[in-house]
Design goal:
The protein has helices at 5-8, 20-29, 34-41, 53-56; strands at 18-19, 49-50. With 73 residues, it is mostly helical. It has one domain. A two-stranded antiparallel ribbon has the order 1-2. It is globular. The termini are far apart.
């Protein structure tokens, strides 16, 4: 399983919190690349409910990771 920003961003608008099955269903219906669906299928599922993409890919960059000050614009 590998994630890139390009792949992970496809799940930003997913209906969080969500189970693995709900995320796969969302990715399929939204036309996400096959790699996103394959990555989701590789998650070891114990019936967990995921609150955000950070729980699936801990290295997902947050808005604080970017040096952009919205107040300046």
């Amino acid at each position: 399983m590998y994630w890139t920003l390009e792949l992970a961003v496809k799940l930003e608008d997913a209906p969080w919190p969500a189970t693995k099955e709900e995320l796969i269903d969302y990715a399929t219906r939204s036309g996400a690349p096959l790699e996103v669906i394959e990555n989701l299928e590789e998650i070891e599922d114990e019936g967990d409910v995921y609150e955000s993409i950070e729980e699936i890919w801990p290295d997902y960059p947050s808005s604080e990771d970017f040096l952009f000050n919205e107040d300046e614009y």
